[in-house]
Amino acid sequence: MKRLAVTVVGLALVVALLAARGSLVHAQPVASITLPDPGSTEQLYEGCNNISLTFPDGTGSETVPQAVTPSEAVQAMWRYNAAESRFVGFSPAAPQASDLVTVDFLDAVWLCVTGAAAAPGGGSVAPPPAGGESHSVMFLHHSTGANLIAQGGVRERLTDLGYEFYDHGYNGDGLVLADGTWTGTNFDVPDDNTDPDGLANIFAQPLDDPPDNTFSHLMEYDVIAFKSCFPTSNIQSDEQLAGYKSYYLSIRDRMDEYPNKIFIVITPPPEIPNDTDSAAAARARDWASWLASDEYLSGHANVFTFNFFNLLADPSDNMLRAEYRTDEWDAHPNELANQTIGPLFADFIDQAVRTYTAQ
């Protein structure tokens, strides 16, 4: 596995990342950012670069990509919110879906860029995951996850970043390899159930070698990402919400037993108005916010939450944004949603690995 350089500003983070990565060789920069005084011009490399910003407190996040040359190279910007133990992000392509609204002086952010917009002759190679070696990623999902992968370029982006990305949908679809090959085999997910109770059942299975159940198959990978689908966002009572939280606490207890694995909890997508009501949607928001909160994540260094719900839901009613609907009777997020959020999801996985490795 080639080891490539990543521009890092901030002495503590430099030490942590260099210790994790070992010896480095140089990649070619694909862009640069000109920071205001007392900053300087920093070279940016394909993938995600850790940069210490020198913009004044309260600067709009959209200002940062404008300082990059070429500005169209910027795909996303991420900042780790330590108080909430989660990443907040900004996408120039979808500012309305971003939760990183402003930046402050000396904020440390991950600026993710692509070499597609680089000038001729500025070829680049993507930096590998933190640790200088390939990481295997498994994403357990149903149809919404399959659409996110296919329409959002998730596999391609993670491959470019040096990962081996596998996924598993319904049992009938089964395992898809890192090169996109459909194997025709599956992990025998009990009853094809990835609702909270089904996931809790999976995480309660024994770890067997050779693997003979869903959990044992999942644990063959370095990074395990999993989600329930939109029907679980139709939460009809406080008791149902409490039950969902209880299931995820049991899942967290099991994840704690394997600190050498990285787990990525993905909040379920929101429902559409024709399939829910305001009270149920508000409970879905409560659940997603709790999964992404310090209450759920603090003290669990190998657990991260990608708040898919928050990126998809209209904050005015907690239902799928109108621009992200396929139609009024289909709660699957549409192609625009997947094209917008797919790169954010891939970059989040990369940042989770880097954060975990640098600890």
Low-confidence stretches: 1-26, 117-132
- N-to-C SSE string, H for helix and E for strand: HEEEEHEEEEEEHHEEHHEHEHHEHEEH
Gap between N and C termini = 22 Å
Q: How much β-strand is present in the residues?
A: 15-25%
Largest sheet: 6 strands, mixed
List the helices and strands and how they pair.
Blueprint lengths: L10 H11 L9 E4 L6 E4 L2 E6 L6 E2 L2 H4 L1 E2 L4 E8 L4 E5 L11 E2 L4 E6 L22 E5 L2 H10 L1 H7 L3 E5 L6 E2 L19 H8 L10 H5 L4 E5 L10 H19 L5 E5 L11 H14 L2 H4 L5 E4 L1 H5 L12 E3 L2 E4 L1 H24 L1
Parallel strand pairs: 10-11, 10-13, 13-14, 14-15
Antiparallel strand pairs: 1-2, 1-5, 3-9, 4-8, 6-7, 6-9, 11-12, 16-17
Helix pairs in contact: 3-11, 4-11, 5-7, 7-8
Structure description:
The structure is a single chain. With 359 residues, the chain is of the alpha/beta class. The protein contains eleven helices and 17 strands. It has helices at 11-21, 63-66, 143-152, 154-160, 196-203, 214-218, 238-256, 278-291, 294-297, 308-312, 335-358, and strands spanning 31-34, 41-44, 47-52, 59-60, 68-69, 74-81, 86-90, 102-103, 108-113, 136-140, 164-168, 175-176, 223-227, 262-266, 303-306, 325-327, 330-333. Strand 1 (31-34) and strand 2 (41-44) form a beta hairpin. Helix 3 (143-152) crosses helix 11 (335-358), helix 4 runs parallel beside helix 11 and helix 7 (238-256) packs parallel to helix 8. The chain starts with 10 loop residues before the first helix and ends with a helix. Mean pLDDT is 85; it is low at 1-26 and 117-132.
